[in-house]
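tl;dr need the bound structure. longer version: we got a ligand (flavin-adenine dinucleotide) that a collaborator sent over and nobodys looked at where it sits. i said id run it. heres the input, straight from their email, havent touched it
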Amino acid sequence: MSQSGNQPKHLVVVGGGMVAQRLVEALRARDGAGAWRISVFAEEAAKPYDRVALTSYFSARDPEELTLGDPELWEDPLVTLHRDCAITTIDRDSHQVTDRLGRTHHYDELILATGSSAAMPPIPGNDLPGVFVYRTIDDVAALRGWVEDKRAAAGKGRSTDFERPVRGAVIGGGLLGLEAAGALKALGAQATVIQFGTHLMDAQIDLGGGQALKRLINDMGIAVRTDTATAQLRPSRRSGHVGRLDFVDGGRLDVDVVVVATGVRPRDELARAAGLDIGERGGAVVDLDCRTQDPHVWAVGEVACIEGRCIGLVAPGYAMAEVVADRLLGGKATFPGADTATKLKLQGVDVASFGDAFARTEGAMELVWADPVAGVYKKLVLSDDARTLLGGVFVGDASPYASLRPMVGSELPGDPGAFLLPESTGGGAASLELPDAATVCSCNNVTAGTIRAAVTEHACTDVAGVKACTKAGTSCGSCLPLVKKLTTTELERAGVEVSGALCEHFDLSRAQLFDAVRVAELHTFSEIIGRFGAVGTLGSVSAASAEVPDGVGPGRGCDICKPVVASILASLGNGHILDGEQATLQDTNDHVMANLQKDGTYSVVPRIPGGEITPDGLLVIGQVAKDFGLYTKITGGQRIDMFGARIEQLPQIWRRLVEHGFESGHAYGKSLRTVKSCVGSTWCRYGVQDSVGMAVELELRYRGLRSPHKLKLGVSGCARECAEARGKDVGVIATDKGWNVYVGGNGGFTPRHAQLLAEDLDSRALIRTIDRFLMYYIRTADRLQRTAPWIEDVEGGLDGVREVIMNDSLGIAADLDTAMAAHVGNYEDEWRAVLEDPEKLRRFGSFVNAPATADPDLAYVPERGQIRPATEAEREAAAETGAPVLIAGATLAVRS
Amino acid sequence: MSTTASTATAADEASTAVGRWVRVCLLHDLAVERGAAALVDGDQIALFRLPDDSVRAVQQRDPYSGANIMSRGIVGTRQGRPTVAAPMYKQVFSLETGACLDPVGYTPLDPAQANLRTFPVRVTDGVVQVGLLDGAAEPAA
Ligand SMILES: Cc1cc2nc3c(=O)[nH]c(=O)nc-3n(C[C@H](O)[C@H](O)[C@H](O)COP(=O)(O)OP(=O)(O)OC[C@H]3O[C@@H](n4cnc5c(N)ncnc54)[C@H](O)[C@@H]3O)c2cc1C
Ligand code: SF4
Ligand code: FES
């Protein structure tokens, strides 16, 4: 800061919401010279979070998961985030703001990004306990807590309060109200939506769509009352909490909780007090450059009144943030106009509207396709010549939405009616070729051209790469199907092997190959590669090499496809993994059924289901390790790992284990590793279920299960979560009533927290749910894809997975159950089976011409009372002095 | 099996220099596409029987990890030519020339020795023999 001339100017941002976050991110990304120092004053205590995804807080629970963007943004030395620190006044004359602690801050430029607050209609009783709005993390947390308390109280069946579900009402039948109603259902409450207008979502869709939507909402078990106004809220006489809704028409509804979602009001109180122009319906008036009448004060997001109105959507707010970031650096950007396309985020109910949904354009034509039985209503709004797309409404099936939205204002190719027919009848928008300028992701303003360039110029090879590179699809996610399609098309066009193909031997993806093998009932690699192998590999055998033997010519697979086929065959139950040709397919560790270590020896991890072991068991493992001179260590999965076993020692070690009632374990390979557990209700004073018993049951059930990647499970005996189950692919956490099951967690390079799949299951339902989850994953995941990214890939994400396994939306649940039952029924101790088969046993010799001779190059040194492999330097030193400082692992006489 | 004729292999060019053929095992002892290690005059060698019953031999030491494990790698093909993948870090080597075809981003312990040494092999009357050069053996690759 010595050259005062170059000191960065100070930008003060009031509000730490979605648009503020985007503004800081955009400015920091472009202001490489550091012209601006940014202070963000945020009223909320949480870091800027994804309000759009607020409802997922009910399933994720972890507010951290909602945090927006790269957390490092807030570590940037040029950025200061003051949380829980609202601004109370603005003094435009002195360029100062005052925060709630009374501190003043000077600004060079000031940005208002204060968003909106939930509107509260002046209904008597709207301040009763039990009446909530739905805008912030705190609102949602309070609502959740309230419903849970009510549920617990009802469950206790107090004398006046017989056991019954919690009754909820949502005032307001718009996007937000429906989302809130879905949330109430998810919390186990009943929900009634009360809509003042003629139909649901009347700001977005027409009456026909509204009627179809009502049917869909009713099908979810949510009641709907339209054309009804609420006269007052009345307290329950006993508790003083909200207890009843009275309608103007005389009707009434008993309730335990009310959510008000009747719209939002811009938070323009600071702007008003500072004498800035305010719009007719509120909001700080700005020009297309987002500046208020004061050239040093800007407004962005929901608080900005732009083109005469405030817009309650995030995409236009992001566009404003980009405009201001550009302007602050001397640019000339202007607001491009608002894209008000919307899609309802309610699982199982597909609703979308975009463009001129109400056909208000002069001469506009409407093309409607409705199937009242299925609850489907689709409408396109077209120009008077029926060619140019102006807008549309989709209810019940919004699949054409992602492709059509970017086409607004363009001519549709072919018969527009085709876009309305179900895809199964040859309709759909599959063949649409988007112009480069079409906006695909409106949240982040990403065009089709940018996505194509991510593939062709920035070498992205999958959707994840394109998301990271362009930000497309990182907000509401509604554009993801289209992003995926564009990416794949572009990759194919570029001749890049679309990541689906396994390797040069198979054009199919793992999931496709799985289905092909299952349906064709093939049982050997030779059959499979003969039938489904890539044709290209046949032609590539050079004619000049007459010596290349016939058997080799067509391609014999590789280290990519062979283990995949091995895993598929194992999942479909094809006997021992070392039977016949199957043995040649196994990856390193599966091949030897132990864990390869750096010096070429192996480690053995005896199975200890659930991590529960007797003192005698401990003695056995200790004695085996001692007899074979093995290094021992406790693993993170609650096992004991014994290192330094040579290949020819493995069968001897297994035999000792088998004799004492152990089996070796799958601490390796793409299969179930371990089920970790805490001690649970049997000993722990907090435990509410027997977590160890459940862990043992799960481990014995899924042991030996081969999968696309490793699988880990965990079981905790109460919400304190001592088993860290949410870091596992499947995490089970005990509740008073049963078990909650979380899926998609993992540790490692990109740690992920598992997400709630289902609540309060009894033990049978829990096991059935996990059975289906695992089998569905095994059948449809990519090679080396863990459960978390797989869930993202499943259509509909976690909700989609839930539909398939809880509601059997694909009609495959019975099939999945049968497959898992077959796995459980066919399980055998793979290690014991080797001991019993001389042919398999023979493969465990160290040398084919000296089967019991140890690898002469192995050398160890002592460290902390055990052995470890000698380093190269230690070997050389030993060789020079000639002194045998190295010790070899102890060898036990071979037992016959 | 005992009548299996001597099979020509790419390594046969080197066989003119073979000083001595050492009997290692029976062809029958080797499983198709599953390697086996052998101790030949103190050298650790990895033997691979291919689907046509020809046998290839390369050094057992993995140049990238230093461990004696090549026989435990997955046997396959690249562009129709036989290969083996190192079990430790998955480099792919030609079974014909020993050349490393894909280092998968690793560097070998000794940067000058990325490839596997190959050995001439012949199968006569069902007996697998490995050819050794007279005196010190030299890398073939
Ligand atoms: C449940 C829900 C679902 C939604 N779904 C969608 C959707 O699917 N699609 C869509 O486009 N939009 C959706 N929205 C709307 C979207 O969240 C908003 O458009 C967006 O958050 C607006 O961003 P913003 O930064 O303008 O305001 P906000 O995100 O509201 O941020 C404003 C922040 O400023 C703070 N603040 C206010 N006054 C002060 C002060 N004086 N000092 C300091 N801080 C202050 C507030 O506390 C708040 O944190 C949804 C909203 C909700 C609640
Ligand atoms: S999770 Fe609960 S039951 Fe398990 S050890 Fe911790 S406190 Fe006890
Ligand atoms: S449109 Fe919302 S993330 Fe792309």
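gonna send this back to them w/ a short note. Chain A touches chain B through 47 residues (CB under 8 Å).
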